UniProtKB/TrEMBL annotation:
Residues 2-246 form the Indole-3-glycerol phosphate synthase domain. GO terms for molecular function: indole-3-glycerol-phosphate synthase activity; phosphoribosylanthranilate isomerase activity. InterPro entries: Aldolase_TIM, Indole-3-glycerol_P_synth, Indole-3-glycerol_P_synth_dom, Indole-3-GlycerolPSynthase_CS, RibuloseP-bd_barrel. It comes from Leucobacter exalbidus. This is indole-3-glycerol-phosphate synthase. Its EC number is 4.1.1.48. Keywords: Amino-acid biosynthesis, Aromatic amino acid biosynthesis, Decarboxylase, Lyase, Tryptophan biosynthesis. GO terms for biological process: L-tryptophan biosynthetic process. It catalyses: 1-(2-carboxyphenylamino)-1-deoxy-D-ribulose 5-phosphate + H(+) = (1S,2R)-1-C-(indol-3-yl)glycerol 3-phosphate + CO2 + H2O. Belongs to the TrpC family. Coiled coil: none annotated. The keyword Manganese does not apply.
Length: 257
């Protein structure tokens, strides 16, 4: 399934590239105001930090929320104390878009993450051109040499890679890249199964000084507590925030952990 998601995102990017060339996009990307410092925003503190996600749907959960105005939701996330806003830009299964990211960028002053299935340089330029400050890189999706190339490009554009892992082996590969921001996704992107204990099992493999993000499987404050006890500096939360009805108070409760 991960392979299909990546193939779909690459095909959609190829379509866009037939309308806007690599060099034209590069000019746009380089003309943006510099990316915000996401590592500073996520620097560990004495409470949990939250990456709050704009998420309409997912292949495992189906439709979650229609989110007609992603910018309004993102403004609530900022008001609730989120450190970063994550915007799903995958169109086919997550019903997101780069337009969502651009709208969110205009509405908030905290860093914004492009969450998609990234496999090519063109997609990284797109992220920067749309105003992204961080880009997700999924270790399981790519061979190490491609990860190295894309990781370096994200850094060169002044952005921060969030390197996503699903096992101790993948954490080792993320560390080899020099990742300063490592995510552990409880949801396996091939089987879609949740493994709530995964973060706790692999957190020790992430070196001191690297920011540890627990991704997925937060449905309530007790899940945030569990991740905190296991050593998470931040949690990435989608479903609970888009379906809960009151994202500001939900966020405040998570930030008290
Ligand atoms: O909605 P949840 O269970 O709170 O999960 C958020 C986030 O972790 C999830 O959307 C995610 C993590 N990694 C991804 C990679 C691609 C797409 C989506 C994701």
């Amino acid at each position: 399934m991960l392979d299909q998601l990546l193939a779909g995102s690459l095909e959609d990017a190829r379509q866009r590239r037939s309308r806007l060339s690599y060099s034209e996009l590069e000019k746009l990307a380089l003309s943006r105001t510099p990316a915000l410092d996401a590592l500073a925003a996520l620097a560990p503190e004495d409470h949990m930090k939250v990456i709050a996600e704009v998420k309409r749907a997912s292949p495992s959960r189906g439709d979650l929320a229609s989110i007609a105005e992603p910018q309004a939701l993102a403004a609530q996330y900022e008001a609730g104390g989120a450190s970063v806003v994550s915007v799903l830009t995958e169109e086919r299964k997550f019903k997101g878009s780069l337009a969502d990211l651009e709208a969110v960028r205009k509405a908030v002053s905290i860093p914004v993450l492009r969450k998609d299935f990234i496999g090519e340089e063109y997609q990284i330029l797109e992220a920067r051109a749309a105003g992204a400050d961080l880009v997700l890189l999924i270790v399981a999706a790519l061979p190490q040499d491609r990860l190295e190339t894309l990781y370096a490009m994200i850094r060169e554009l002044g952005m921060t890679p969030l390197v996503e892992t699903h096992s101790a082996d993948e954490v080792a590969r993320a560390v080899d890249l020099g990742a300063q921001l490592v995510g552990v996704n409880a949801r396996n992107l091939s089987t879609f199964e949740l493994d709530r204990e995964l973060f706790g099992r692999v957190a020790d493999q992430i070196p001191a000084g690297v920011i540890r993000v627990a991704e997925s499987a937060v449905l309530g404050v007790e899940d945030v507590q569990r991740y905190r006890e296991a050593g998470a500096d931040a949690v990435l939360v989608g479903e609970a925030l888009v379906t809960g009805g009151d994202p500001i108070s939900t966020l405040k409760s998570y930030l008290s952990v």
